[in-house]
Amino acid sequence: MAWPNIFHRGTLFSRFSHHHVVVFLLTFFSYSLLHASRKTFSNVKVSISKQWTPSAFNKSINLPVEIWSSNHLFPSAEEATLFLGTLDTIFLFSYAVGLFISGIVGDRLNLRWVLSFGMCSSALVVFVFGTVTEWLHFYNKGLYCCLWIVNGLLQSTGWPCVVAVMGNWFGKAGRGVVFGLWSACASVGNILGACLASSVLQYGYEYAFLVTAAVQFAGGIIIFFGLLVSPEEIGLPGIEAEENFEEDSHRPLISDAENEDEYEPNYSIQEGSTITQVKAISFYQACCLPGVIPYSLAYACLKLVNYSFFFWLPFYLSNNFGWKEAEADKLSIWYDVGGIIGGTLQGFISDVLQKRAPVLALSLLLAIGSLVGYSRFFIGGPSNMISSAISADLGRQELIQGSSEALATVTGIVDGTGSIGAAVGQYLVSLIQDNLGWIWVFYFFILMTSCTILFISPLIVRETCYLMQRRQAHVLSE
Questions:
Q1: Which pLDDT score, from 0 to 100, does residue 28 have?
Q2: Alpha-carbon distance 219 to 150, whole Å?
Q3: Positive or negative CA dihedral for 94, 96, 99, 101?
């Protein structure tokens, strides 16, 4: 099999300038900081639960329980924990809705402005939620719910914007490898959030929120002044101009054409080369792009499984096998490591094949066989590919003539649909586990993984047939 020109003689990295490196790092750490604030909330839940109940300091202060309870939310730690779980659900649903909105906004406004605003505003909300309320000893369930809904909406500006910026700078050749490495940003954010929270938690959970919010706010300022949205901003050629020199550059990785040699778009956002200003496509047009709906539905099922492992794995190991909490947490770190390795390796293979769906199919089939074990490599890899590299492919396919004004919208649709699946999944997992046990939870994961393959099966068949035809043509030419 002939390898793409991008992998010959180190071409992949030699074509990148220092601007590409800066964009890679800025978008990487901007989303890492957003994820760090989510991880901080997860890490300080025990401290918050204690503070929200009257037993927190009543042992050392000689006050009647009734007077002490008037300044607290819940009579017991169990009710506080239940409310914290409710906040998680509220956040996931508001985040999912926000992704659809943020994608549309990102394609109509400057991506740098939207990302910077989201990071700084989210930092302020986190600061008020965790620090100001504790300093003022003001505890109110309604306020907490409203703040966390707003935080979910603001945090949703991150992913569509950073994927769109990365799509502007890195072409489809080698995109699987680049985005595979880059999609580790969420895992790095989890580790960063845990480190920041643990470093100051001894002084009070409010300082964990303070430090995280301060670092995120500073990151938003750096993004506003330092991020270049596209190469054209500094006079460099766009990726479309570079890809014109690559072999087979006019055939997208994602195509809805039955015969790719006779590919003809059925509508165009830009009509002719005389139009100088590109308009953002509508939400309906973005949904109609080939591959968007199948991959969105597939990602809803896959993100459900992925997030369920993320949230429930330590609890499952402790509850089912008697592992110590520290040991379960350490093993859960390897869940992120497996996703990084899987996403990078599978992205590289998809670049070599110049097709994504067959690689996803093989990995997911292997995941079904290993779900009774520890399968982040096979689950996390496809999840990272769909949310990053494939979203960028979908937003830059030939049907819209490479317009960057579809990238954020398409990314928002894919990740928003996935987040809805993840939010619903957290409730279903707890429901199934309580009524049927953990073995049925894993049967449920197998069903959802199978549905992922089912939703993209037409793409799998078409791209596999194309690979076979290309192979036969190559053999005949020799």
A1: 94
A2: 19
A3: negative
